[in-house]
Amino acid sequence: MTKPKLRIGLIGSGFMGKAHAFAYSIAARVFDLPFELELHTIADISDEAAAKAASALGFARATSDWRSLVVDPAIDVVNITTPNALHKEMALAAIAGGKHVYCEKPLAPLATDSREMAEAAEAASVKTQVGFNYLCNPMLQLARDMIAAGELGELRGYRGVHAEDYMADSAGPFTFRHDPAGGGALADIGSHALATAEFLVGPAAGPITGVMGDCVTMIKERPDGKGGRRRVEVDDVGRAFLRFANGASGSIEGNWIATGRKMQHDFEVYGTRGALAFSQERFNELHFFSTDDRRGRQGFRRIEASPDHRPYGLFCVAPGHQLGFNDLKAIEAAGYLDAIAGRQPEPFNFRAGLRIQTLVETIHASSRAGTWKNVP
Amino acid sequence: MTKPKLRIGLIGSGFMGKAHAFAYSIAARVFDLPFELELHTIADISDEAAAKAASALGFARATSDWRSLVVDPAIDVVNITTPNALHKEMALAAIAGGKHVYCEKPLAPLATDSREMAEAAEAASVKTQVGFNYLCNPMLQLARDMIAAGELGELRGYRGVHAEDYMADSAGPFTFRHDPAGGGALADIGSHALATAEFLVGPAAGPITGVMGDCVTMIKERPDGKGGRRRVEVDDVGRAFLRFANGASGSIEGNWIATGRKMQHDFEVYGTRGALAFSQERFNELHFFSTDDRRGRQGFRRIEASPDHRPYGLFCVAPGHQLGFNDLKAIEAAGYLDAIAGRQPEPFNFRAGLRIQTLVETIHASSRAGTWKNVP
Amino acid sequence: MTKPKLRIGLIGSGFMGKAHAFAYSIAARVFDLPFELELHTIADISDEAAAKAASALGFARATSDWRSLVVDPAIDVVNITTPNALHKEMALAAIAGGKHVYCEKPLAPLATDSREMAEAAEAASVKTQVGFNYLCNPMLQLARDMIAAGELGELRGYRGVHAEDYMADSAGPFTFRHDPAGGGALADIGSHALATAEFLVGPAAGPITGVMGDCVTMIKERPDGKGGRRRVEVDDVGRAFLRFANGASGSIEGNWIATGRKMQHDFEVYGTRGALAFSQERFNELHFFSTDDRRGRQGFRRIEASPDHRPYGLFCVAPGHQLGFNDLKAIEAAGYLDAIAGRQPEPFNFRAGLRIQTLVETIHASSRAGTWKNVP
Amino acid sequence: MTKPKLRIGLIGSGFMGKAHAFAYSIAARVFDLPFELELHTIADISDEAAAKAASALGFARATSDWRSLVVDPAIDVVNITTPNALHKEMALAAIAGGKHVYCEKPLAPLATDSREMAEAAEAASVKTQVGFNYLCNPMLQLARDMIAAGELGELRGYRGVHAEDYMADSAGPFTFRHDPAGGGALADIGSHALATAEFLVGPAAGPITGVMGDCVTMIKERPDGKGGRRRVEVDDVGRAFLRFANGASGSIEGNWIATGRKMQHDFEVYGTRGALAFSQERFNELHFFSTDDRRGRQGFRRIEASPDHRPYGLFCVAPGHQLGFNDLKAIEAAGYLDAIAGRQPEPFNFRAGLRIQTLVETIHASSRAGTWKNVP
């Protein structure tokens, strides 16, 4: 039985463009996908760059005109991995072209734009995906399942952080990530901490209902790349207190000037009967404390990723061999393809991406106001 | 040359009473103390309890009347290790009796009481000490020295936590720690997180100037010990955003319902040139990241306590052998005795204890108001 | 410029067959390979199994006749991932057919067979590869480079282990891995420990020149799969003392009954100026101690995999994102393809595979004799 | 009820002399000892040194004549903390004087001497103790109890190491520890690894019955302290394969040139149903894997020392506060005092110390012979 073809268009070939291309390749080998994938066209900033990327990443065609890509009738899915400010225009055009759209996070710099995108996608009945790839880790799915199954008892507290140091050097130039409209550490990586928080505890504790934000700019200006300096207004550190629907409370921090940290996407969840602790620095492990263990033998238990934790076993039949970052992205792609085929709901669609933008903006608003805000 | 005698009176023989007695014994062996110590009198709730404690802890005399102890002309130093609500009365009486006073933390449930105690001590020119024992760890002193010496560069961010689970069981009874006047997780152990924050970064980043608090009661009532239930109003989790004088920002959390955590007194400090990470769960280690390390060889370095880190070498001449909790308490006692002898300033006197209470109360007030508060 | 085609034949579609298929797919995306790869034919035990595997793993053709595959003029490289006892016959046939051969480890159960294979390949001037995939970790390459560059000073000691628990259950059946000719824990996974030892320290300390073995059978019989029991003669634990050419000494252990261990492929290397420690359980980290660090700041430093450590950056441009097991296999495949293209020497050819078998057999012989043996 | 007095004499006031003095002080506070201790006399190399030590360590009298100390009728227990070569003469003299003797390890450089000492003590019916202090860790007692109770199932494998780096610098001078008669890393610290091995698994797997040794001298000569160089013959690294009475096998390593290691006294024990892993670098933790945990939730569990693990609770009533090295020594002293009082058997008497010397010498003999040796 032959599978239907699904033709992929990709806009952008940087860090995340490559990650999408890798993800499809890996997914096609690892999963029993519902489609035969065709890497159809890649668009980049120039013909030359696009041609080079097509060759490197395995796309059959290349273009410097993303507008032609998003209306190409031969293309089924459009992947958007360009700077954030371009997401909206590209996504709306692709949706208008009837394409499914897989957009990198953040969905758009502003929640209003994100909403427009989500509504357009829903009106057009296309399937969408936003790239919150850390959620695709089998150990996070395990954590979520354990929490939902009550293995921690009733949830009481949450602590999350996403800290890196890629903006720690004040000599680094002003980039699109510093754009006052939607930039900053909270939006860029604090968003991961927020996504993880609701992903994990949402089913058990309900959504985040209130936030108190603390967004701080530590590096006040940066080289503008033209010999001058440019004022920076976005946050280098964005913190929030959280309130969940069930009354549990917590906090998150997004921080891109945390010298020495490369991938501190960590969380701790505390319930009445147990706790979980996790660090992306060792993301093939989940640490689990249970009050069910007998007295004198209790302790945080280091669970290593194994075929017991789906879909690890599709990558490797033996425990302890470990997944890498590109594998997480492949899981994300596979889930999205299943959603396109109607096999499952969209794992993290534009509406979910809007939700994160809403949380980010509510935290920003709270920080500016210096008071708690309800999350709309 | 014989040393002058210093006669110790101790009120209380529970967890902290024992710790004080152990501390003096260890300090007398390990340090070249300025005094010959005499464990003179111990006071406890009854004659019988006091006699038993005296025998166990090596005090020559016992009494059930703490009031007689604090005015006994034979006693030089009064140690107070009773429930928090009693600290003030006992300390003021001891100060009035001309005694030096070594009081367990928190100094008093309320800052106003703490201030009265600090001012009385200063007026009487007696030497005081409050028991923030975790500060006495050589690795914390190392961290403070490194920060002060600029090894991290300019300070930018701080994350602190003190989480345990001794109140996680909602079937546990209402105790003095739940007293609406001064109880709660923030006061009880969040205070350690605050003390550590200012201890470490104060010399470099200045004091905490502003706070935004988030204090949450998760267990709303507890058994009252008489067959009924009693409403709990104090916080089970107390969080705060922090602002330091130099503009650096941070956060702390005090949490006594963190299931599975026994001694998560942790911090991370980030500067422009480096970072430190520490956990009391492994308190003979300090983790240090330096951008001075060459490219491709950078990473958090696990520094193990050794004779290079004073006063570790007095306990053991070989590295890696490790100090225990009672050793930290002995370092605290030794520092205090040096202060009494005029060899050094008081390491953490009542004024410093008042400072912590002020921080706690400002966080409480901020939490109630839902807005930032300047720290007086 | 189009690349020459390289057509791949794969025999076997189990754990390692999949890993080879994944490896080529990932390598084709991640690396600038010298060839355009074509997954040409897969051979498996039956037509049905082969067809299914071809579909799953992306091969164009399927066959149940591996003999036809190895002589198919359309095929350039033959990958052998079948049980160990079949490696020799298949490899010799493929070499006779003029194919390059990429064979899973161990090369063959016996060193004599391995030698025959290595000599045949060399005589035929085909390029060969044996799958010691853990060596392909950028952190191991880093370790080797550091050692070779003298960052540890003169090498003195080595400790290696490869322990798992996949044979810990005595109710598990007798398999080809228990075959008296070439089976056992030392051959199966102790071989990894040996390969890593020589890979890391060989350039600096020279090869292993002498061994003293200790091979122990703990589970004396196993179910034979036909309702009976079968005697087991191979080692469940195989240890060895090692002597290197420069006089340094060390030890390794292979252990497949280490309950709880999933991937304890660990090593520690000690030199006069520093040390390295590594665990495959956290294989994106390397721990480095240097006496060059200043006094009071020394400690094992956790270096996280980053673009500074080639070829990590081809997988991900940002540090800390981590590689997975299949990525290691892709690095292995890419290195082999470069060798086929003449860009570099074979990374781990049949001659190197023979070396490992020789070490394994010398250890076995030493264990049987109860005395040290020189390694031929 | 007053306790009988026990008067302590101590010979030596270096590292271990201090540790003994500290141990008695701590023990007297922490434990309900059967005696009232009196630190009676300390002997050191000169009158001046002895007087200074007496003052520092709390002994009432000082002498430069250890011979007078060991026959002083006022003294009940003699503690020997001098260089190894002096142990025998001092111990025999003390035993002849009717004293109980608490001797630092190793009992004597040679097993024949150790035997003489053990037999003399037994003939004189005095109580003896040898200072294998790491065994006194509550987490080791826990490990032993768990193994004895069958929580790991049937024992199969053991891996132990004791590695430090205090002899790693080849510029360090020749000391008594390099004495050809009884010196070397195996005797000095490998002995700890041996003691721990039998302590833990002895009750379940029986004693070590056979050994194969590998003792290596890496630093062939050292400064002799007089401007010349002196040849070193003792081992810098001493390894052994082990066979236990029940058929389980294992290995240990003693290594005093392991650059970067300060206290790597580690072990792993594997049984049919579980495993334990421990490092003295974090000695308030024990890691436990149990196959009884449910599938998908298995993992090594970090058990933190707590009042559930005797006698931790006597030091601190709260979990997670941690013991230090001097506390371990206090537990050792307390156990010995209980043995003197007849409350329990001697925890680690001269006969046990002889056992370790016998193991060390058998390993040395095996290493020299290059063959396995049965342990007498």
From TrEMBL, chains A, B, C, D:
Q: What is the lineage of its organism?
A: Bacteria, Pseudomonadati, Pseudomonadota, Alphaproteobacteria, Hyphomicrobiales
Extract the signal peptide range.
Answer: none
Residue ranges occupied by any GFO/IDH/MocA-like oxidoreductase domain in the UniProt entry? 141-276
Q: What Pfam family is a match for this entry?
A: GFO_IDH_MocA
Presence of the UniProt keyword Oxidoreductase in the record: yes
Would the keyword Metal-binding turn up in this protein's UniProt record? Answer: no
* MF GO annotations: nucleotide binding; oxidoreductase activity
Q: Where is the Gfo/Idh/MocA-like oxidoreductase N-terminal domain?
A: 6-132
Native species:
Bradyrhizobium manausense
Enumerate the UniProt keywords alphabetically.
Oxidoreductase
Name it: 1-carboxy-3-chloro-3,4-dihydroxycyclo hexa-1,5-diene dehydrogenase
Q: Which SUPFAM superfamilies match?
A: Glyceraldehyde-3-phosphate dehydrogenase-like, C-terminal domain (SSF55347), NAD(P)-binding Rossmann-fold domains (SSF51735)
InterPro entries xrefs: Gfo/Idh/MocA-like_OxRdtase_N, Gfo/Idh/MocA_oxidrdct_glycsds, GFO_IDH_MocA-like_dom, NAD(P)-bd_dom_sf
Q: What domain of life does the native source organism fall in? A: Bacteria
